[in-house]
Amino acid sequence: MSLTDREYLAINQARAMLQESGVWSLEDDLSCLVDRFIERADKGRALEEFMLAVQERCNRIPLGHIVGTVDFDDMPLEVGSGVFIPRPHSRVIHKWIESSAELRPGSKVLDLCAGSGAIGLAIARRRPDLNVTCVEFDPIAVQYLKRNIDRLSCKGVQASCLQADIRDDQALAHFTHQIDLIVANPPYVPQAQELLPEWGEHHPQASVYSGADGLELIRQIISLADQILVRDGWLVMEHGEDQAEAVRELFRRNDLTDIQTVIDKNESDASGSSVMTIGRKPQ
Fold first, then answer.
1. Which CDD domains does the entry link to (predicted)?
2. Global pTM?
3. H helices within the chain, ranges in order?
4. Percent of the chain whose pLDDT exceeds 70
């Protein structure tokens, strides 16, 4: 292999780290990692794996599920079959937090329906002064969530994981009137709606669909917000563009104020628009 001095230095550092960790096949593991991330030793095998990956993509398997990672807000997140792949659309939440949210240091943030942790971890990266907890119920998604929290902690990104079912009224009762900000990208597609195969066939259905009108879990989260938000606390939720008026009405019925819907075309793509609705619990 023709490696640079920087690459040799990184490999030597990796060898020392692996040895200290106690892995039982140090050199085999190191060789595999070098082959995967730095330079492929067997070009023929690399080409074969490339064509297999292309065939999977032609079968409409999501790219993140094929390569096992997705880049979100400058963070490399681990994903795979059985977990929702975060989309750029969710960055609209972080734009709002940086430009408009009034969050004091130490404020408590819950990322509900967290999946692999993209939204919550990005908040924790951008605002390390906040106390972020990512809440997920599905056991497969929780494994990816924990893994991403652990791997990004070495970069100083700190967040907590909580496995809980938000459909259970008591699941988050210990947060009653303690949360300053709830963010969520819940499933919001109506059950009968047809989607691209990547989403309709190859994503876990519970992460995409939510009842006949797509609002089942959104209603649950809005109700939960009344229980756990502090006075003046914020609720920020992603949803479909055609659901905007219905979501605003649900916010109004639950006495939220300062309600607005944001549609960010810069973060939208062929899979849909980047849309969120914001509301605030009154004083």
1. AdoMet_MTases
2. 0.91
3. 5-21, 26-37, 43-58, 63-67, 91-99, 118-126, 139-153, 197-200, 216-228, 244-253
4. 99
